[in-house]
Amino acid sequence: MIRVCRVRKRGDGYVASCEDETNGLGTDGATCTEGADCAPGFDCIAGDKGGTCRRYCCSGSCAAQTAHNGGPTFCDIRKLVDFTEHLVPVCLPLKTCKLLQAGQCGDTETCAVVTEKGDTGCVEIGNANVGDSCESQHCAAGLTCFGSPGDRRCYKLCKVDGADCGPTQKCTTGAVFQDTTFGVCNDD
Hints:
By secondary structure, this protein is mainly β. Helix content is about 0%, strand content about 40%. It has 2 domains: about 1-95, no CATH class; about 110-185, no CATH class. It is built from no helices and 13 strands. The chain has a 4-stranded antiparallel beta sheet with strand order 10-11-13-12, with no helix packed on it. A 3-stranded antiparallel beta sheet has the order 3-5-4, with no helix packed on it. It is elongated and about 60 Å long.
């Protein structure tokens, strides 16, 4: 028996719950059908090809974590197999891309800044618009999620020398962009 903490449904909400489990050995990238198939610190995330064990990243960072293939990871929200209506923060393999360039990601993905170091990667396209919280939903295409965990919002990506922003806005870049020809639209 292994004592593990997992997200569990309680009433109308979700809570962290510590329980004894017998078979939780799956680590990053392992196939799973339920959370109990994954090792402590991991949970079973729903995907197109079934469930996959991924490490929790409750702090908002995966800087010290590598993917099962040895590559870099980033913290994103995904649906649990056990509760498909609930999203949790997990470390995902980084699929690199170039901002604002078509064809860089899959049909249901967009390229965004995904780490505090400015790495870019493909993330699911969501319904959150500019200014909306991206704590529990993904931003729409062409947007990126910035801020501290608990206060992250969607911002419109732009080219610094382009006309991507509104008439009262300016495209500003910063240290979070590795390629400073890109930025986000801010009020002038």
